[in-house]
Specification:
It is built from 10 helices and 11 strands. The chain is of the alpha/beta class. The protein has 2 domains: 92 residues, Leucine Dehydrogenase, chain A, domain 1 (Rossmann fold), CATH 3.40.50; 124 residues, NAD(P)-binding Rossmann-like Domain (Rossmann fold). It binds NADPH dihydro-nicotinamide-adenine-dinucleotide phosphate.
Length: 283
């Protein structure tokens, strides 16, 4: 089998285009969606991610922007800034770019973001709402993956989904969303025994690990849909996923490339969550 490529770039572009009319409708009511991104320190990968978020926000005509703070920023200073944005009615979304410098406790900072402005969906309140199936901000990467799966036209109900990775920002919310879609879900992680055997039972296989080439063809069921969340920089200008792309293409029915798959969707979903936050603030 030669897998069809799920074109995340094109789907993200269409998603962002579709947001334009919602942004216009908000503007007609005197509201401009406003996303404030906070970047602390000089991490080069974070700087690129933040610049991409900034560009996407500008293209959609959002207000807001990026606040760049020095590495030496204290936890208290960062929390004060978050609280200032919480109190500002013109701000609809707040995103603190992770990872933060080592002297800052990430969970403590995230806990100060108002759940109503938590467009990354990382606040415990939103994580809990996702768990019990209430309306919430869904973390952008797994939300984007669900949109990519929709594009395949596959009926998810009753399928076996295996998620490799159990982080709070990707693996766990991914598993919950697949469960909501009535998949039977297995979560694998670094302590999982027989990873290959478990993966090879998956109708939907999501790799969110950060290990280049971890998922090889022998771990993939013929005809499976394979979603590669991993982003691994293997050379100055070369980024690969967690899936051995060429060989897995021979087994899968659909596959996402890296780059051009999940990554593009993550930003589109952030834009969608921000528009949603602005709409909610009006209602
Ligand atoms: P984390 O490092 O937080 O989590 C990695 C997970 O992979 C952990 O649960 C870990 O298990 C598991 N793991 C590690 N090694 C193995 C192994 N050999 N076999 C099975 N499981 C293993 O990473 P994130 O969840 O934040 O990100 C995962 C990947 O996705 C990264 O490459 C990241 O760059 C990328 N990413 C991409 C985004 C995008 O927009 N495309 C957005 C966010 C992340 P354990 O819990 O036991 O340690």
């Amino acid at each position: 089998m030669n897998a069809s490529i799920i074109d995340g770039k094109a789907i993200a572009l269409a998603t962002r285009k579709a947001l334009r009319s919602r942004v216009e409708a908000l503007k007609e009511r005197g509201v401009t969606p406003c996303l404030m991104v906070i970047l602390v320190g000089e991490d080069p990968a974070s700087a690129i991610y933040v610049r991409n978020k900034e560009k996407a926000s500008e293209k959609l005509g959002f207000a807001g922007g990026v606040t760049r703070l020095p590495e030496s920023t204290t936890q208290e200073e960062l929390i004060s800034l978050v609280e200032a944005y919480n109190a500002d009615p013109k701000v609809h979304g707040i995103l603190v770019q992770l990872p933060l410098p080592k002297h800052i406790d990430e969970r403590a900072v995230l806990a100060h973001i108002s759940p109503d402005k938590d467009v990354d969906g990382f606040h415990t309140m939103n994580a809990g709402r996702l768990l019990v199936g209430e309306r919430c901000f869904i973390p952008c990467t797994p939300k984007g993956v669900m949109r990519l799966l929709e594009e395949t036209g596959m009926e998810l109900s009753g399928k076996h989904a295996v998620v490799v990775g159990r982080s709070n920002i990707v693996g766990k919310p991914m598993a919950l969303l697949l469960l909501q879609a009535n998949c039977t879900v297995t979560i694998a992680h670094s302590k999982t025994a027989n990873l290959a055997e478990i993966c090879s039972q998956a109708d939907v296989l999501v790799a969110a690990v950060g290990r280049p080439g971890l998922i090889t063809a022998n771990m993939v069921k013929p005809g499976a849909v394979v979603i590669d969340v991993g982003v691994n920089r293997v050379a100055e200008k070369k980024v690969v996923g967690d899936v051995a792309f060429e060989e897995v293409c021979e087994k899968a029915s659909y596959i996402t490339p890296v780059p051009g798959g999940v990554g593009a969707m993550t930003i589109a979903m952030l834009m969608q969550n921000t528009v949603e936050a602005a709409e909610r603030a009006l209602s």
